[in-house]
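Title: Prediction job returns without error message
Component: structure pipeline
Severity: low
Priority: P3
Assignee: unassigned

Description:
Job completed but the reporter wants confirmation the result is attached to the right record. Sequence as submitted:
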Amino acid sequence: MKIPVPPAPAYNGCMSTLKEFFLLDPAIHFLNHGSFGATPNSVFKAYQAWQLRLERQPVLFLGREYDSLLRDSRAALGGYVHAEADDLVYITNATYGVNLIARSLDLRPGDEVLTSDHEYGACDYTWEFVCGKTGAKYVHQPIPLPVSLSGRGAGDEAEIVDQFWQGVTQRTKVIYLSHITSPTALRLPVKQICQRARQAGILSVIDGAHALGQVPLDLQALDADFYTSNCHKWALAPKGAAFLYARRETQHLVEPLVVSWGYGNDPRFGTGSRYVDSLQWTGTKDPAAALAVPAALQFMEEHRWDEVRRECHLLLRQAIERICELTGLPPLYPLDSDLYIQMGIAPLPPIADLTVLKSRLYDEFRVEVPLIQWRDRQFVRISVQGYNLQEDVDALVEGLRVLLPLLS
């Protein structure tokens, strides 16, 4: 029996009506959704209801209901991302998914894993660790900022693809890329890169940590060999809910990081999919975050999230424009493009200590926002989610107006 999700009032086209549904401290101007996400109250209650059900009869729940409940949740997620339930498996976070694939692949001395220079540091460490053990080489292909595009539409993406593809050699065995990059919030044209990789016989591994909930996701059309994403960031699920997708043709390559009952075809821990079984049951754990994913998807549907995203994008664009006017620095991607969605960066003048600026923005202006050091550049990375208001952007701009002259 599924626990019913409390219905939420319909979204009426004004983001101010959404703030009340979230558990965030109202005294904080929270512009850092990209780091860990935030969960609506109704979704959090569904999460707690699953935890309570587990504690009331843990043997029934984990021993006899676990597989079917998770399959129902994966089916709901599959409907959202256009994938079969048995091609998806729940994991704790996207970094775990990258580790799973990086450690599964048969890399050998001289092989190359090609990535961009915009990747998330923790996953860079993952590939460096694996390449260090296997003798493979981890190669960063630069994609320069500002993004300079000659045209509009498909031509824009083709230019980035060509920039990236310059790093491909005869030794390239794997391409690893973020769908939306963490330090620079740049949406990369991963579909086109996956297509070229398939034609060249190169495996594609896409880190979609920031993509689910922020961009429409069609895994069938994207056709990556492996795709991992967090549900707990832009898709509003509780912390600890993420997924790994693998095409049927590549599922046999995936090896579990933890070998447990599911690996041994034990009928007590089986779904009929070796890929799911070997990864889904790795010992006793609380699956409540994954089981609450359908509640998060329902929340977004009830609140017409496509409209919410559009409003968020407009507010983000305004924020970047105002900060660029304040600093006199040009934006790092065309503001009328879809190279950024709900998360974007604005350049900052040289700051001696970003930690001091971040602390003072929080302590004096109650603004929670990350400041990024990327290569030799410094940015403020702004996330705008449905609970954000004009006053949040105003507080950030005012804080920078006061503090930048003091700290630059």
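Comment from assignee: result matches the submitted record. Confidence is low (pLDDT under 50) at residues 1-13, 151-155.
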